[in-house]
From TrEMBL:
Domain (Cytochrome c): residue spans on this chain: 77-157, 182-262
Organism: Thiobacillus denitrificans (strain ATCC 25259 / T1)
GO molecular function terms attached to this record: electron transfer activity; heme binding; iron ion binding
Protein name: Probable cytochrome c5
Superkingdom to which the source organism belongs: Bacteria
InterPro entries the record matches: Cyt_c-like_dom, Cyt_c-like_dom_sf, Cyt_CIE
Matching PANTHER family: CYTOCHROME C5, PTHR40942
Stretches that traverse the bilayer: 16-39
Keywords carried by this UniProt record: Electron transport, Heme, Iron, Membrane, Metal-binding, Transmembrane, Transmembrane helix, Transport
Presence of keyword Membrane: yes
C-alpha cells in the first residue's frame, strides 16, 4: 500500500521538467502578446510631441506657414479660418493631448477651461499659459486667426463661441503700422503707458531705458529678435509687456524707442 502511494507521487526528472516548461509557457505566451500589443500601439501612436526635439520639429513644420504669411505681408493678408489655423498649428498638441493640452472634442478636458469665457481663453492662447506657447508657437498668426482657432477648438468640445468675422476696427491700421518702419517717436507714448513700470526702474531685472550697458548685448540680437521677444515674452518680460490689447505696430514703435534710447540703430 505504502509502496503504490510512493510510486504514484514519485515523478521522474523528465516529468518534472515537462511540468516546469508547461508552467512557464503560459506566462511566456502572455509576455509575448503584451510585447506585441505595446509594439502595435507604438506603431499607431501619434508622433511624440513632448520632447524638445519633437517640439523643434513641430515648429519647423509650421515654419513654412509663418514664412508664407511673411512673404505676402505687403499683399492684403487673408485671415485663415479657425479650422485652417487649428490644422496647421494647434493640432500638433491639441490633437493628441501632447504636453497635457486639452484635446479636440474631449468635453471633459475643456469644461473648466470653457467656464473662463471666450475672451480669457483667447487671451491665454495669444499670450500663452503654462505649457501652452503664445499663439501656439506661430508668432505670425494674427489675433483674429488665434481667436478663430480658439472658437473652433472650444466649439468642438461643446462651446458656442462666435469667431470674429474680420479684423476688428483699427486692426488694419495696426497691421499697416507693423509693416511700416517702426517709429521711435511714436513709441514714446506707448512706452510711457505700457513699459515704463518695469523699464523705467529696472524692476525684475528689466534693462532700463537709456542704460547702454544693460542693452549692449541685447541690441546685438537685432531689432527683429528684440521685437519678437517683446511680442512673445522672454523670461521676466511678459508678452506685449502684459498688455494683450497692444497692437503690433504700437509694440514695434515702443521697442524702437527703447532701442534708439540705448544708442541702438534700427
Ligand atoms: C506645443 C503644444 C501646443 C500647441 C502647438 C498649441 N497648444 Fe494650446 N495648449 C497647450 C497646452 C499644454 C495647454 C494646457 C496649458 C495648461 O493649462 O497648463 C494648452 C491650452 C490651450 C487653451 C486653454 C487655455 C486655458 O485658459 O485653459 C487654449 C484656448 C488653447 N490652448 C488654444 C490653442 C490654439 C488656438 C492653438 C493654435 C493656434 C494652440 N493652442 C496650439 C499646448 C499647445
Ligand atoms: C512687468 C515688467 C515689464 C514690463 C511691463 C515690460 N517689460 Fe520688457 N522686460 C522686462 C524684463 C524683466 C526684461 C528682461 C528679460 C530677460 O532678458 O531676462 C525685459 C526685456 C525686454 C526687452 C529685451 C528682450 C531681449 O531679447 O533682450 C525688450 C525689447 C522689452 N523688454 C520691451 C518691452 C516693451 C516694448 C514693453 C512695453 C510694451 C515692455 N518691455 C514692458 C520686464 C518688463
Amino acid at each position: 500500500m505504502a509502496d503504490t502511494h510512493a510510486k504514484m507521487t514519485q515523478a521522474t526528472p523528465q516529468e518534472i521538467l515537462i511540468a516546469i516548461l508547461a508552467g512557464l509557457l503560459a506566462p511566456l505566451l502572455a509576455i509575448v502578446l503584451i510585447v506585441q500589443l505595446v509594439l502595435g500601439i507604438q506603431k499607431d501612436h501619434k508622433p511624440d510631441t513632448t520632447s524638445e526635439a519633437a517640439q523643434k520639429a513641430t515648429l519647423a513644420r509650421i515654419a513654412p506657414v509663418s514664412q508664407l504669411a511673411a512673404a505676402d505681408a505687403n499683399a492684403p493678408k487673408v485671415e485663415k479660418s479657425g479650422q485652417e489655423v487649428y490644422e496647421a498649428v494647434c493640432a500638433a498638441c491639441h490633437g493628441s493631448g501632447a504636453l497635457g493640452a486639452p484635446k479636440f472634442e474631449a468635453k471633459g478636458d475643456w469644461t473648466a477651461r470653457l467656464a473662463q469665457g471666450y475672451d480669457t481663453l483667447v487671451k491665454h492662447a495669444i499670450e500663452g499659459i503654462r505649457a501652452m506657447p503664445p499663439r501656439g508657437g506661430a508668432a505670425d498668426l494674427s489675433d483674429v486667426e488665434v481667436a478663430r482657432a480658439v472658437a473652433y477648438l472650444g466649439n468642438s468640445a461643446g462651446a458656442d463661441f462666435k469667431a470674429p468675422e474680420a479684423a476688428p476696427a483699427g486692426a488694419p491700421a495696426a497691421a499697416a503700422a507693423s509693416a511700416a518702419k517702426p517709429d521711435p517717436a511714436k513709441g514714446k507714448a506707448v512706452y510711457d503707458a505700457n513699459c515704463v513700470a518695469c523699464h523705467g526702474t529696472g524692476v525684475a531685472g528689466a534693462p532700463k531705458l537709456g542704460d547702454k550697458a544693460a542693452w549692449g548685448t541685447r541690441l546685438d540680437q537685432g531689432f527683429d529678435t528684440l521685437y519678437s521677444h517683446a511680442l512673445n515674452g522672454i523670461r521676466g518680460m511678459p508678452a506685449k509687456g502684459g498688455n494683450a490689447s497692444l497692437s503690433e505696430g504700437d509694440l514695434a514703435n515702443a521697442v524702437a524707442y527703447l532701442v534708439t534710447e540705448a544708442g541702438g540703430k534700427l
